[in-house]
Protein 1
Amino acid sequence: MTKEHVKPRTIYRRDTPKTDSKLPTYMSLSELRKLFHFLEQDNSRMAMRNHLLFKLLATTGMRRSEIVELTWEQIDLSNNTIRIYGKGKKERLLPLHPMVVPLMKSYMESLEEYQLHPSQPVFLYKLKPVVLVEL
C-alpha cells in the first residue's frame, strides 16, 4: 500500500472525568456518642475548649477551616446563631444547637476578658501567643 492510498485519520482526544481527590470520612452516631462521653469525663486544662469545639463541628457541619478562623464577633448568643464566612467568602448563618449554648457560655466564663474581644479567635491553641488589640 502506498501513501497515496492511505486516508488520513482524525484522532479525537477524550478527557477522562475528574475524580474526587478524597471523600471525607464521617463518624457514625455510636462513635460520636463515645467521643462526647469521653469529652464529658475529661478534666484536662483544655477539656472545655475541646468539648465545645467537637460539639460545634458535629452539630453545625462547619468546615475545619471555618471553625479555626471563628471569632467572637461571629457568634450571636441572643439569636443562637453563628455567622460563617466560607469558601469564596460566601456568608451563611448557622443555628446553634441547644446543647451547645450552655457549653459556649461556660467556655466564655472560663476565659480572660481580653480573650473575649470580638476579633479574637474562639478556639485558642495553648502554645499560641495572644495578640492584644488596642481599643
Note: The mean pLDDT is 82.
Protein 2
Amino acid sequence: MGAFESQLEGSGKVHWLAEVSLSAKDLTHPLIPPRTAIPNAIDFDPDHRLVILTGANMSGKTTFMRTLGINCVLANLGLSPFGTSLSLGPVQLYTSMRNSDNLGESVSSFYAELSRINHLIERLEAGEPIFFSFG
C-alpha cells in the first residue's frame, strides 16, 4: 500500500478529530491520473450534516462519492489522502451502491435496497455517527 501511495504521489495531510466531522480540501480519486482529476472539497460538521449531491448524467457525482470513500479508507489504513487535507472524526463509512438481487433467495434488487436503508436507519437510531452515500 505504501508503494501505491508513493507511486501515485498521495501526499495529503490527515487530521484526526475527537468530534464527529468529515472535511476535505482538493480531494481527488487515486485511480484518476492527476493531470485529469478534478479536485473537490467538502465540509461536514455538527452544523452541516447533510449534503444533497445533484447534477447531470456523467457529471461526476458517483466518482465524487467514491473519492470520499476511498480516501477515508486510505486514511484509516495510515496512508495519505489524495488531496491537500482530510479531517476525520469518529464516523463509520456506509455505502449503498449497486445492490444486486438474489433470485435463489427470492431477494429483488428493490428489496435489497430497502433492506440496506432499514439497516442504516436502525444504526442511526442507535446513535452511531455514520457517513453514508447512496449511488
Note: The helical segments are 2-7, 61-76, 109-125.
Protein 3
Amino acid sequence: MFKKILVPTDGSKFSQKAYRTALEIGELSKAEIILLHVISLSSTYWRASEPFPIVIEESDLEETAQEVLNSTVEGVDQRGLVVRMRKESGYPAQVIIDMAEDEGVDLIVMGNHGYSPFVATVLGSVSQRVLYGATCPVLIVKEDEQKPNINVKK
C-alpha cells in the first residue's frame, strides 16, 4: 500500500476534498501525508487599471502560504496520521513532480478545478501536467457535482 502521499493544496474546495480523500486512503496503511502549497515564482501581479506592477513581498507570500495550509487542515480529522506541511516556491507542477521524486512519494492526490477542455488547453492545468510528468500514481479528485433534479411527468 501507500506509505507516503503528497497532497498539493491551493486552499480551494477542490484541494480540501483531495486532502480528505488522501487521509481516507492513508488511514488504510498508516501513510504519512505531505501537504504542500507552492508559492508561484511570479511575485509580480498586474492590474489592468494600474500603469505599474504591484509587487508582493516574499514575507506576505509566506504568510499567505501558511494560511492556505492551515485552512486546508482546519476542522478535519487527521485520523491519527502524521501530516507534514510544506511550503515551496516555483512553478507548481514542476515543484509537485520534483517533491514526489525527492520524498519517495507513492501517490499524489490532488483536486481538479473542472475547467472545460478548451480553458484547460488555453490556460494549462497543473493537475494535467502532474498527471503526465509524475513517475508515481496520481489520483485526481473531482468535486461532487449537483445533478439536476429532472421530474418527468407522464
Note: The chain has five helices and seven strands.
Protein 4
Amino acid sequence: MQHDLFSSLDSFQALSVAASALLVRDVAGQYRPAEADEVLLAAQQLLAAQVRGSDLMDSPAVVKDFLRARLGNLPHEVFAVVHLDAQNRVLDYVEMFRGTVSQTSVYPREVVRDALLRNSCALVLVHNHPLC
C-alpha cells in the first residue's frame, strides 16, 4: 500500500473532524464545538477530582499520569507540590512558582511553610521542562 503526503493529510483531517465533534454547553444552554483548551481543562479537572483524596498514589505510573495531565502542555516552567497524607492519598496539588520558558525561582521556605499549613505527611516536588 502506497502512502504519500496527501493520504496522511486526509487521515489527519479526519481526526480533526472527529475531535471537533466534542460539544460543550454555553451559559445560554446552546451547544457548540469544544475548543482544545476547554477539553484539556475538563480532563485536568476530572483527573484531579479522581486523584484528590481517593486512591493511593502508590506507584510511579499513577503519579506520572497525574502529573503529565497537569504539566504536559504548559508553555512555561512550573514548580508544583503534591501534598499527601499518611496513606499517600492526595490532599492537594499546588503550583507554587511559575517561571518563564527556561527558568523558575523556587523558595524552599515557602514550600515548607505551605506543607506545614496543610498538615502534609509527604510531598512530591515537581518541576517541568516545557518544549520550546
Note: The two ends are 36 Å apart (CA to CA).
